[in-house]
Write a structure and sequence with these properties.
By secondary structure, the chain is of the alpha/beta class. About 40% of the residues lie in helices and about 20% in strands. Helix 2 packs parallel to helix 5, helix 3 packs parallel to helix 4 and helix 6 packs across helix 8.
Length: about 325
Amino acid sequence: MWQEIVEVKSKLEFPREICILSHRNPDGDALGSSIGLALFLQSLGHRVNIVLPSEYPVYFEWMPLTEEIIIYDLAGPQAAEYVKRAEIIFMLDFNSLDRIDKLGVAVNESTVTKVMIDHHMDPEPIADYIFSDTSYSSTSEMIYEFIENYGTTVKNAKLINDCLYTGIMTDTGSFHHNTSSRVLRIVASMKDQGLDDTRIQELVLNSQPDKYLKLLGHCLHNRMELIPELKFGLISLTREDYKNFDIQRGDTEGIINYLMMLKNVTVAALVMNQPNIVKLSLRSKGNISVQELCRDHFNGGGHKNASGGASKLSLDETLKKLKEVLPFYIFAN
């Protein structure tokens, strides 16, 4: 997969203006891979800007360069200008322009070299160089190998490893899914280089405000539904819930995992009635593909056992549709 890295490297022989993009609602992998690559390219003398469609969760604010990230929702003209003036564009952790919303227009109009590095299925031909492989746990794992295959001394390896570990750790659910011997060897190598993985786990997982536990209690006591015949667990959040608990970006992270703790649940869903759209997050055990379900019915995708999607229907209509189509994916295996 990395054969074309020689050609990409030739584009980076002299200092360039580089723009790194990742997807809306950036998670740990979007941030970790983007910042990790930015630090590496900066060490080579390039001018690098990270542009994201929307804001990131507050528990990632400890990461380097976060204060310099340009958010399109907050500074649209400035974000579009960074894309427009870039000499090289890196697209990380997404494989279609609709994942970056209005930024996709600026990217589509740009004629500069574009490089996609991503681990999701079915990449669209939107870049000159496409590094795509679904066997990787995360884009952060791919960036680690990109840097390794680049073949140069890494000056700020510890900072880069902190970011890439964050992406790997969050996208594997703390090494619960999407793991491989390769990614474990990579983390072992990071550890040998001084990675303080316990510190990062604490920063990301154990720094929630008290409202998180109140919201979690509400979800489990008032919003949880179990359907035993389907081995299906569901939590749905209304717009009223968003208002009452002041739910902000990242506040629902990890809630779906509590459903997966149940012995008799093989598929779980967190369905959220956000202000402008209904968002779905799905998890599964074994051979049940929630990726196919999200792709086929909710304009989404991801991984076989961890995917997401969206619906323009009402919350009630979305829940009805989910319950109607779910059996076809459960009983197909």
